[in-house]
From TrEMBL:
It comes from the Bacteria. This is Probable membrane transporter protein. It is a multi-pass membrane protein. The keyword Transport applies. It comes from Caryophanon latum. It holds the Pfam family TauE. The keyword Metal-binding does not apply. It is found in: Cell membrane. GO terms for cellular component: plasma membrane. The lineage of its organism: Bacteria, Bacillati, Bacillota, Bacilli, Bacillales. Belongs to the 4-toluene sulfonate uptake permease (TSUP) (TC 2.A.102) family. The chain crosses the membrane at residues 6-34, 70-88, 95-113, 133-156, 168-186, 192-212, 224-243.
Length: 244
């Protein structure tokens, strides 16, 4: 079981770094292996926190992001993630799945209409709209999670940032929300540490591979990858919704 979790974490986080959607593999796999829902979500939060931290340290060491860009995202996202994590116990899995489907379908429509295509801007200027969206995604990520990394990329794409910058900021966003949510899940006693550690090791390696691949992908190819992952995510979540 732990070997499966290691490779699922690795592959999922290569995909997750490039276009979000690591939960597309990790969460369903853990559930299929018999891990309780809240323990599986908590394990994903911890593994995502660790993998995005490793990616962020790489980004900071290469000076690819300024403090003015990533510190506000860290603060906003962590607050949303903590509130979402606390709220999660009050909602059913079916309700959370429906929320995810609606959010991802909305993001996909905006992408097709050209509202969230990548641009050429190299620096983020945080405004009220982006801040509100970051809080909302942080809240959703703390609640459930699948698709949140993809939604972060869509939000930054609305500011016409380059694909590379959207991915880097998206990793910051996922890190911040997972930090807040992971604290809640750990304190609630949901974590199965043996399984979580193997998932986390694979996730860290996957994130590092993804960070090395992202620099070779053009904006146009990235848009196709993002839409493809979004469609797969929606399909998977619809099947989960119908199964409950």
């Amino acid at each position: 079981m732990v070997t499966i979790l290691f490779f699922v974490g690795l592959i999922g986080n290569v995909i997750g770094t490039l276009a979000g959607g690591s939960g597309l593999l990790t969460l369903p796999t853990m559930l299929l292996l018999g891990v309780p829902t809240h323990s599986a979500i908590g394990a994903n939060k911890i593994s995502s926190f660790a993998s995005t931290l490793s990616a962020i340290l790489t980004v900071i060491s290469k000076k690819q992001l300024s403090k003015e860009e990533f510190i506000p995202i860290l603060l906003i996202g962590s607050i949303g993630g903590m509130v979402g994590g606390v709220t999660a116990s009050f909602l059913t899995t079916k309700a959370l799945t429906l929320i995810a489907i609606i959010l991802l379908m909305f993001a996909l429509v905006l992408s097709i209409l050209g509202k969230t295509n990548f641009g050429e801007r190299a620096k983020l200027t945080l405004n009220k709209k982006v801040s509100a969206l970051l809080v909302a995604i942080g809240f959703y990520d703390g609640l459930f999670g699948p698709g949140s990394g993809t939604l972060f990329i869509y939000v930054f794409a609305t500011e016409k940032l380059t694909y590379m910058k959207c991915v880097l900021l998206g990793r910051i966003g996922v890190f911040s929300t997972c930090l807040g949510a992971a604290i809640v899940y750990i304190s609630s006693g949901y974590i199965l540490w043996y399984e979580t550690i193997f998932l986390t090791i694979g996730s860290i390696l996957g994130a590092q591979i993804g960070m090395r691949l992202v620099q070779y992908i053009s904006n146009k190819v990235a848009q196709l990858i993002l839409r493809g992952i979004t469609i797969i995510l929606i399909g998977q979540l619809v099947l989960e919704f119908l199964a409950h």
